[in-house]
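Exercise 7 asks you to align residues with tokens for two separate proteins.
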Amino acid sequence: MSLFLGVDIGTTRTKVGCYDVEAGRLIALYSAPTEVSDDAWGGRRDAARLTAAVAGLLRQLLDDPAVRPQAVAGIGVGSVGEEVVMLGAGGEVTAPVPAWFAGHGREAKPHAGEAWAGVDDTFSVFKLLWLDRAGLLGGARTFTSLADFVARDLLADPSAPVFLNVSHASRTGLLDVRAGTLDEAALPSLGLSALRLPVLTGSATVVGHTSGAGVLPRGVAVVTGGHDHMCGAFGSGVRKPGDVYVSAGTSEAQVLLVDALPERVDAGIDVGVFVAGGLRYLHRATPSGRFYQSWRRMLYAEQPDDVMWSEVDAALDTVGPAGIDSDARTARPAALPMDVTRAQAMASLLKGLAVEADATTTRLGALGGTRIADVTVAGVAAGWAPWRRLRQDATARRLRFVAEPEATVLGVAALARLGVTGAADVPTRILAKDPAS
């Protein structure tokens, strides 16, 4: 039996899972909240506490009766894309980790200069600039992503070079995505010449092995993962040019894989290097999960999910879609009856988000020069039949709904397998061809 472990450090939860190759599925999964502390800009994390939390979850996983620790061949680590850990000369953490969604980068970006105007303000480069302007860089000499920090901590050699996988590098603003190399001149141009760039590695790359002194057995291969959305795409079978992946989470990410990037990319569309196959991607995020959570708190705060979805399902045919502006992050409710119910208000929002998702698919396809027929959709929301139905009703394309709710964990573990064995096939469960079922 060959087992591979996947770690997914998400925005709100951190999860660890065990992928059994013979069974073709995750056989055990454990999770805990991803800690974030408040600050004036929207949140920060403690890298050491996060590493300890991952270790605790791995202990639970290895104690699970379904998991044989000695059969574990590799472990991969994925995480949210833009959060960076600052490291000193000895590899020690020197600063807090600004949360990707917080406003640190938005405050720092105006000080970066006109050359950076087109770069997303959540990208890591602006977090580095904010830390410097706040006097928090301290003795930092380099940096890496959350995932690669945790992966490096698992290695037998504490003096191993600080590495950064190319998937996360795509979210820093420091990567020449077309060339696949880090820009050596970028940090000095921002007055950050004291920082060295980490060693750029590919995803699914074995960077070392465990010593046996920590939570994992000796000799387990430690493999680079990537940005959580891209790992989820890989775990869902999205692997070739023209494939589209929708990850319905806190930020709904939509990704189109391409052989080569178009000459021109619209504002609001990010580009990057995919976790496998040498592919590039076009990416756009919609704050769908945040819209949903805020409206749910307002309309269904005390109700369980099954009550809400039952009411929404009955109301779907009585209202039109809300107008969604992803750039402005606003929703404009459709015309609603004077005696509007909470179910109608929620149904209108969800239908609007479905329309916005289909428009995003069309936009990505036009940029990528490809006609998109099928779209793979994953996330907790895909487990609800009304959500699947309203999404399918909003498009002429066929939506392929992934049954595995932890597609990202599976994807990270599958990348670990790819790095260790070169094998990339992952059975992906599909909910139903008929989204109304």
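Second protein for Exercise 7:
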Amino acid sequence: MQMHPVKLHPSKAMLPREEQLAWKIAGVAADKVAVQKDVQEMIINRIIDNASVAIAAINRRPVVSARAMALGHPRKGGATIFGLSNAKGFSPEWAAWANGTAVRELDMHDTFLAADYSHPGDNIPPILAVAQTMEKSGRDLIRGLATGYEIQIDLVRAICLHEHRVDHIAHLCPSAAAGIGALLGLKQEVIFQAVQQALHVSVSFRQSRKGEISSWKAFAPAHAGKLAVEAVDRAMRGEGAPSPIYEGEDSVIGWVLSGRTEADKHGRAAAYEPVYYQVPLPGPGEAKRAIMDSYTKEHSAEYQSQALIDLAFRMREQIQDLEDIERIVIHTSHHTHYVIGTGANDPQKMDPKASRETLDHSIMYIFAVALQDGRWHHVDSYAPRRAGRADTVRLWHKIETTEDPEWTRKYHSRDPEELAFGGRVEIFFKDGTRLVDELGVANAHPNGARPFGREDYINKFRTLTDGIISAREANRFLEVVQDLPRLQAGELHLVNVALPAGTLTEGKPGIF
């Protein structure tokens, strides 16, 4: 990997494009280096993973709405949409919108956490939609997805969006554009313009994941995917983009991220902050392996809760009566405490009438239910009746989080053997005794007790789609997707999952 310093430059500096981050990202995308065998296999795993959670969410309201909008944009030979027949095609940006929403709705697919947050599997819907529409092969798709994962994960390693209250899709849209460029074999110049356009149009704010969290949490990554498809389309037609989009005087770094002093932002000075983002990218001819550093979810909840759910399952075995608990303190990282813990200061995270989207961002709720039930279910664990149970509310309101500097250090460690997203839990009982345990990574994590392999992804698919699709369709999809490298041009429409006729819920009427 090569490290690239990225900072603000005044317009008069005339920063050469060869020194701009977007150009370097485009260079990685344009590099036709072979995709290694284990990376290919992991890409297949993640396509299976996406299909699992998308079908499980297929008739939830946001997914129904997104699909209904996409149905207004049919295209012969276009992209497929989850739930519909493989023979039906739609405009790729709208297929990316519908499928991206389905994948994201349950918050149960893959994740990568470093300087910022990400769900790199969000790259799959837009890149696959373009691959289907442009009649690309399985190998083309694999190359595009390896690139999308690489760019998003490398940006997440280096540039923190959250500290500036910017949503993580600002890294997703450029990565999807780069992945589409790699898929199509576009020239570096074209990908460069597409990446810049993608970033320019995709900066939005963290309020979508704070307070009263709405269905936009599921729509946001799908919107980024749709914008990425449109950005590449414009760039292919010769249209340019705001440049330099990362380093320019009025760029994203300049006015949204770390780049200017506060005095400069208020017009009182003309000083630039001496801040460099050090962005790692593969060098020329270097394999794109970032997907191997990401990890999926066994439980349908925010990733920082995965290890704590497993820890709750373990600790409950040592508790005779949960009513004997006086209080629970979760010692964890800065991000966990301030995003899904009591440090967020969101009263909604303690409200039994809160939305599902809010509850899956409340570690207090999640830990209480996991401790009581000893299981986690993507529907049952969030049901309003489940959240409103009196004993659950009592336990839930006894839980607090606190930041522990050591867990924060582990959260940001660059040593993969030390990296941890869990915490240490202290349970205090009314009789003065105490139970303490800790867990650094989820059981399903690559360093966990039971790392996910191909059979686990297949089992997740069969479990989440059981009763929704036929056994024949499940078997067909799994056979096709595991043969992805051998799929020929024009065969990628087979990488879709259809429901039996008449089982898809129809959406409310709108404009489209």
